[in-house]
Amino acid sequence: IVFSSFYQAKEKFKKELKIEGFLYSDLSVLASDIPYFPPEEEEENLEDGIHLVVCVHGLDGNSADLRLVKTFIELGLPGGKLDFLMSEKNQMDTFADFDTMTDRLLDEIIQHIQLYNLSISRISFIGHSLGNIIIRSVLTRPRFRYYLNKLHTFLSLSGPHLGTLYNNSALVSTGLWLMQKLKKSGSLLQLTFRDNADLRKCFLYQLSQKTGLQYFKNVVLVASPQDRYVPFHSARIEMCKTALKDRHTGPVYAEMINNLLGPLVEAKDCTLIRHNVFHALPNTANTLIGRAAHIAVLDSELFLEKFFLVAGLNYFK
Fold it and tell me: Which residues does the UniProt record annotate as the domain DUF676 (predicted)?
């Protein structure tokens, strides 16, 4: 009787959300059944190489932002031959332009590999917010070509892949505009497509024309409709109703989406996965302006543990 009531309530809830897909409780098998603290850990055999996981923070963030993400992956996959690089080269200035931040991250990755003399079997990237754009930009650099065939998973947490156009929060849009003016931020100018009068010459549009994402085995896009900082459709790389009605910018927006998704669809060994996240958030000002949901993908233990146990760990095995 209890199960029947739960099932009925769950189906009603799914109809109210108007989403197609699965909920946590629909999946009977966990991504990992290994205990967090196994009694005896075997010594790792590193002859086959290690799996380097590069974590990149977002705007005004730091190298500790993704510490819980790292923790739950390590707990769920003990002995997984994982080496984490928590990027810190951009934490002093995330308001610089993307080319500058790309150079810093690329230098940091290569220096890390050389410093520890790492034998790399696979490379995965985890980015939060603006950090995802820096990651995609690194993939296009000639110095990174050697590592393209080693790419495994790209986990994007609230990434503004289509910029911040068509943001439905006037408050956030105004705040970003003020911040860009005060900080003279190149990255914020590029995210809002104001770095060139010709939209097709803007950084994000030109980045969409370059190869990169299709080299991954898994491209995982995590987005929340409660996040007002990064538009839901931008984090999911999909069209929105406002863009469809916009005859000026809309077609350019559609071209960007096709540029990004076309190669992914054609790549036989690449899988695109989208996860929609609905957080249980308190009724606060941060929730109202959408910041709470934007940060929750980093600091909500409830979300992170469920996400990695149910699905996320599969992408790093």
Answer: 48-241
Which tokens in the block code for residue 10? 């769950």
In angstroms, the CA 152 to CA 213 distance is 10
Q: What is the rounded distance in angstroms from the CA atom of residue 285 to the CA atom of residue 299?
A: 17
By the 10 Å C-beta count (0-12 exposed, 13-18 middle, 19+ buried), 74 is classed as: middle
Q: What is the pLDDT along the chain (317 residues), one digit of tens a residue?
A: 556 777 788 788 778 777 777 777 777 788 887 777 776 655 556 567 999 999 999 999 999 999 999 999 999 999 889 999 999 999 999 999 999 999 999 999 999 999 999 999 999 999 999 999 999 999 999 999 999 999 999 999 999 999 999 987 766 667 776 777 777 789 999 999 999 999 999 999 999 999 999 999 999 999 999 999 999 999 999 999 999 999 999 999 999 999 999 999 999 999 999 999 999 898 887 887 778 999 999 999 999 999 999 999 999 99
Unique residue bearing structure tokens 């005896």:
40
Q: Which long-range contacts (CB under 8 A, 24 or more apart) does 64-72 make?
A: 65/128, 65/298, 66/126, 66/128, 66/298, 68/298, 68/299, 68/301, 68/304, 69/126, 69/157, 69/298, 69/304, 72/304, 72/305, 72/308, 72/312
Q: Where are the alpha helices (DSSP H) in 116-249?
A: 131-139, 170-183, 186-191, 203-208, 232-236, 241-245
Please count the other Cβ atoms lying within 10 Å of the Cβ belonging to residue 181.
11
Task: Strands of the chain (E only): list them.
Answer: 50-56, 82-86, 120-128, 151-157, 218-223, 271-276
Alpha-carbon torsion (281, 301, 308, 214), positive or negative: positive
Both tokens assigned to 245: 């009605």
Pairing of strands 120-128, 82-86: unpaired
HEC secondary structure over 283-314: CCHHHHCCHHHHHHHHHCHHHHHHHHHHCHHH
